[in-house]
Specification:
The chain is α+β, with helices and mostly antiparallel strands and about 300 residues long. Helices cover about 30% and strands about 35% of the residues. The protein contains 8 helices and 16 strands. The chain has helices at about 15-25, 40-50, 65-75, 100-105, 110-120, 145-155, 165-175, 240-250; strands at about 1-5, 30-35, 55-60, 90-95, 125-135, 135-140, 140-145, 185-190, 195-200, 200-205, 210, 215, 230-235, 260-265, 270-280, 285-305. Strands 5, 6, 7, 8, 9, 10, 13, 14, 15 and 16 form a 10-stranded antiparallel beta sheet that branches. A hairpin with a 2-residue loop joins strand 5 and strand 6 (about 135-140). The two termini are about 25 Å apart.
């Protein structure tokens, strides 16, 4: 098996020692190349070249941003009919949140995750998962317009070793009271339904959507890698409304309800338009500003090396 290990040395939990241990362990089972990223988009370029060159496996060692770049690289040249036929993906978390890895049952500890990856390779364990596609960007767990993207933008300005749950909370409070682009009205269009207005919108490919430390945040409990997309949109942003839904999101497997809430699971397609440009984020990275985005669910888009949770 030919494999490439893509390492982001700037990720929160990656170290040179950990990289060497992981590379040595992988090299015992596969023919391995190791690449350290040194600029934004480098992981995408490496994964794209690996797919073109017929590699069997690309392992991402970094945070959710590194994983997202690798996924977009693996699928960059795939036609709709050939999605899912490229190299497999392996993940060893090295970031601060590692939402995608944790949603798959991969340990957030890099050493334990390495053991899981080696076991899965040895026993030929893998899983096909669906992904989301938004404005040409693949996402593994979440994308959104409005408040959450504003938060991502604030955090990005200070991203690095200091990234933490506390930083996200401060950014969320600051973006709520001082939205950088205001709060333009969003129009949500779903198949077979009348358009609906919203102030912020989250589109999920799985649940939990993210984590605050060890606590999972649930927006669409019926959403998974085997279903369509989940939509969570609020048409009001008063403090009582936001507090109510934040509280519900922090309850284990909570089923969100509320008169200001527009919520659906298992959607094949979602269209969201904005009256004025709003921030747009994908897997926790700010992409830019948009006045309209179409989100599409793509089943069985990727094969991931993963150990079943019962092993």
């Amino acid at each position: 098996m030919r494999a490439i290990l893509v390492v982001n040395p700037q990720a929160t939990s990656t170290t040179a020692g950990g990289r060497d241990v992981l590379a040595h362990a992988l090299a015992s089972q596969v023919k391995l190349d190791v690449v350290e990223t040194d600029y934004r988009g480098h992981a995408l370029a490496v994964a794209r070249a690996a797919a073109r060159d017929g590699f069997d496996l690309v392992v991402a060692h970094g945070g959710d941003g590194t994983v997202n770049e690798v996924v977009n690289g693996l699928l960059a040249d795939a036609s709709p009919a050939r999605v899912g036929d490229g190299p497999m993906l392996g993940v060893v978390p090295g970031g601060s949140a590692n939402v995608f890895a944790r949603a798959l049952g991969i340990s957030p500890d890099p050493v334990e995750a390495t053991h899981q990856l080696l076991y899965a390779l040895e026993h030929d364990r893998s899983r096909r998962i669906g992904l989301g596609l938004a404005d040409g960007h693949w996402f593994t767990f979440n994308a959104g317009l409005g408040w959450d993207a504003d938060v991502v933008g604030k955090v990005a300005k200070r991203r690095g070793k200091q990234t933490s749950a506390a930083l996200y909370l401060r950014a969320a409070v600051g973006s709520y009271f001082r939205p950088p682009l205001g709060r333009p009205t969003l129009t949500v269009r779903l198949p077979g339904e009348e358009p609906a207005e919203a102030m912020t919108a989250f589109v999920s490919n799985t649940d939990p959507w993210t984590y605050l430390g060890d606590r999972a945040v649930h927006l669409n409990s019926g959403c998974s890698f085997e279903t369509g997309l989940g939509l969570f949109a609020l048409n009001g942003m008063s403090l009582p409304t936001v507090f109510r839904h934040v509280r519900q999101a922090l309850l284990t497997e909570s089923n969100q309800r509320g008169r200001r809430l527009l919520r659906h699971d298992d959607l094949p397609k979602i269209r969201i338009d904005a009256a004025e440009p709003v921030h747009f984020q994908v897997d926790g990275d700010l992409v830019g500003q948009r006045t309209g985005v179409e989100f599409v669910s793509v089943p069985d888009a990727l094969t991931v090396i993963v150990t079943p949770p019962d092993l």
